[in-house]
Amino acid sequence: MGCDGGTIPKRHELVKGPKKIEKVDKNAELAAKWKYCALSQEKLRRPIVSCELGRLYNKDAVIEYLLDKSAERPNAEAVTHIRGIKDIKELNLTDNPEWEGERRNTKGDRYEDIHCGMFICPVVGLEMNGKHRFCYLQTCGCVFSDRALKEVKTEICHKCGDPFKDDDIVVLNGNKEEVDKLREKMEEKRAKAKTKKSKKSKATETVSTSESKDGTVSPPTDIAGTSSQQNGGDSSQSAVAGPSGSSSSSKATKSSSASATKRSIQEMNEKSEAFKSLFTTHSSAKRTKDQTSNWVTHTPYHF
């Protein structure tokens, strides 16, 4: 049977079946992960950073998020595990010489490679476009392909020469299983850091308490007692002898301390007279009574 106009409908046009699941375009998904920031959804531009889960961000976007976490952002869930700048690492990437970027021809008169990546592996030369697995080192931030790390097995970075361990390798834009493993590793590392901080704080508290206890023991009290006794003795002497007695006692203490610490050059028998005459303590440098005046005033006017 036909409808109006003589059209012949088909079965799928008349009978409603189950809806088909919309599949995400793989090329678009790869481009969103490897060419755009996971937070701001803007194109990746230097400086590029990555978190402990292997996601790529623009450093400016992460700093803006850390400065104002109350602002509403579409992809704030991807950054909830970032507490500060210490939780991200700036990546040391190698530019792709074939990447033209904005300089490429947009007229449409030539073939445009969608899978061309901005960066490549410095060892093997693979493009970082999502088709190949890439990793970065938490120690230095250098980025390599997984194939390069497997083929050239070393404990030193291929690019900068810094040593690293297997635990320092973080997979970029991994699958769910890899992200879950990285999340567990991140939580363990943070738990260890908390325990270390608590131990350090407890150790400092115990040291401070022990120092305070030691400070309240006999030595400071003895010092205070001796000082008070000396002050009492000095005060009694000053009370008995008056101002002249206090000055004489202070001079005696000064002379005794000077004699105990220093030795006069004139008393040294091993020195010659020529050497001793260079100092003002020599007898030739002292004035006689005739050479000294009766008084000395501040001004030359004598009244």
Automatic annotation (TrEMBL):
A UniProt-annotated Pfam family: Rtf2
Bias kind Low complexity: ranges: 225-263
One Gene Ontology term from the biological process aspect of the record: DNA replication termination
Amino acid composition bias (Basic and acidic residues), ranges on this chain: 264-274
Bias kind Basic residues: ranges: 191-201
Residues covered by region (Disordered): 182-303
InterPro entries cross-referenced by the UniProt entry: Rtf2, Rtf2_RING-finger
GO (cellular component) term, any one: nucleus
Family: Belongs to the rtf2 family.
Record PANTHER family: PROTEIN C20ORF43 HOMOLOG, REPLICATION TERMINATION FACTOR 2
Name used for this protein in its record: Replication termination factor 2
Originating organism: Neolamprologus brichardi
